[in-house]
Amino acid sequence: MKISLKLEYACRVMAQISRTYGSGKLAHIEELSIIEAIPQNYLVQILNDLRTGGLLLSRRGKQGGYKLAKPPADISLHAVVTAIDPELLSSKVSLHGQSGAIVSEVWNDLSNKLKKNLQKTSLASLIPRYNAGMMYDI
């Protein structure tokens, strides 16, 4: 399965921000960009989409930054996909032709299974389990 680069970046940055949930620390664009190797100007767009989707809270200014709106265990990957790349969750198969209906039914079934799995999988499952290359003071 191929996911968009934007969705990959969103998952990586959400995993990093999840590391400090509950600590009161805010994640800063500059540090996130370096640690996750995401261009800053693209990261700004992604963070804005995640904020608009209700997954992140932001604070402006020199001491500003980003934090999760909810605990990592309460944010599903489905919510991240919906905020970043909702087209991934849709199945648009033509009903034309003799086999159109059955082909559409199979793809709709697979799409529904993907949605259910994304809903069951929380952001907590993406939190890095090691310290190498991790943010130290966000």
Task: Give the helices and strands, then pairings.
Elements lengths: L4 H14 L10 H8 L3 H13 L3 E4 L5 E4 L8 H8 L15 H21 L18
Antiparallel strand pairs: 1-2
Helix pairs in contact: 1-3, 1-4, 4-5
Q: Class by helix and strand content?
A: mainly alpha
Query: In order across it, which strands form the biggest sheet?
Result: 1-2
Order of helices and strands: HHHEEHH
CATH superfamily of the domain at 5-89: Winged helix-like DNA-binding domain superfamily/Winged helix DNA-binding domain
Which CATH top level class of the domain at 5-89 fits?
Mainly Alpha
Strand content: 5-15%
- The number of strands is 2
Please identify, by name, the CATH architecture of the domain at 5-89. Orthogonal Bundle
What is the terminal separation in angstroms?
32 Å
Shape: elongated
Q: What is the residue-averaged pLDDT? A: 90
> Largest sheet at a glance?
2 strands, antiparallel
**Would you give the CATH topology of the domain at 5-89?**
Arc Repressor Mutant, subunit A
For the CA atoms, what is the radius of gyration? 17 Å
| Number of separate helices | 5
Helix content: 40-55%
Low-confidence stretches: 132-138
What's this model, at a glance?
With 138 residues, this protein is mainly α.
